[in-house]
Amino acid sequence: MATNAAANLAQDKMGEAHVIVANEDKQNVSDTTDMLACVWKGKEKLEMKRVPKPEITHDEDVILKVTGSTVCGSDLHLYHGEIMQLKEGEILGHECIGIVEKVGSKVTKVKPGDRVVAAFNIACGQCDYCKNKLFTGCENTNNSSVMEKLYGQKIAGVLGYSHFVGGFSGCQAEYVRVLYGDVNLVKIPKNMPDEKALYLSDIVPTSYHAVVSADVQEGDVVGVWGLGPIGLCAVQWLRNVFKAKRIIVVDNVGPRLELAKKRWGAEVVHFDEDKDVAAKINELVPGGLDRSIDCAGFRYAKNLLHKVERAVGLETDTSEVINEMIRSTKKFGTISIIADYAAYANHVLVGGIMEKGLRLIGCGQAPIQRYWDECLDYIEKDQFDPTIILTHRFPLEQTVEAYHLFDKKDAAVMKIFLQTKFSGPVMPGTPMLTNVGDA
After folding, report:
1. Residue 117 · residue 66 · CB < 8 Å
2. Domain of 99?
3. What's the CA gap between 222 and 214, in Å, rounded?
4. CA 20 to 30 Å from 118, out of 187, 214, 350, 375?
5. What are the tens digits of pLDDT across the range 365-386?
6. In this structure, are 94 and 177 located in the same domain?
7. Rounded distance, CA 215 to CA 346, Å?
8. What is the 3-state secondary structure of 48-65?
9. 248 and 378 in a common domain
């Protein structure tokens, strides 16, 4: 495991990951010492605030001028107050691209002026998990005793995602501090626009990890539940790179189903129309799917029983999608879960897992740093295009309104680019800057 020195340094760094309290009197703070950021003020309450600008506090830190960030589906869990140890005043956001402004004295792989993408997860690079490229298993960047008690062990810290994963300030802001810069930043080729590179921070390698974890082989028949950004990226990987024979997608948002059908030849199951999803899939694929991938998440209960149990606190997560996958997957097939699950789910069809010999794989938070080189290569070769799901570009100042729009699950909104004062020109063919109210 990590040396004592590395562990102590990580603990010191976490001490710096305190909640930043918004400065109400911005007139008394100069532009060089404060910045604009999106902060959590309570359940379904966010605010744009002037807050202190981050500074180098340890010799492996990097300060970025953020040129683009986004709102992720998993950010909605924070917005709704569903993640433990979330504290008022925390800066949100875990996906960004930026320009290096300052580096600590021990940072060697990036320098001021470099364009880089930051990993959503924070890895020390020295513990056994990091050395085995399982960066989200890092032992040294999350001090949450709550997670340790609940799960038995802790995972790595995460930018902008509550004290349950370390309490680090996020990147829906003009600047962000990235710990262990040599481990958690990747330089972007000069010819790659920000719009293509930004999502290397999470959804592009995360979706790739989900397909890898499902052990998809060329010629497989694969089901994908949930066509948010992760699900749609997974479908693109399945078609363009992993060469799945058939792809079955499950959702209830018509335009997303249509995109998967037209762009990547997926067969669609609309769960509002086909109430028994597993029966429909077994009709389409007699014998069942080779692999199933859950990209939906714990929030989306359909059955009244699960809605009631979640409402009164009898369960945190619904098991409906998991049960649909158990019934839809062939004997000795594989199920991978990349969707966010938090704690407990009732009524899991555990007998089906055992009796059918299913491999149920928790993908974990994706160790995205291990996939950066591969994903960059596929993007440069035009075998994967992240901008297909980029639908809107809004100013950072309207991040709160962007959350509200994203939460509505408007069919037209898939992925957002949040532009800052440091952003460059818009990539041709991608959405132009608009106001959220005009979306």
Report:
1. no
2. 4-202+368-438
3. 9
4. 214
5. 999 999 999 999 999 999 999 9
6. yes
7. 27
8. EEEEECCCCCCCCCEEEE
9. no
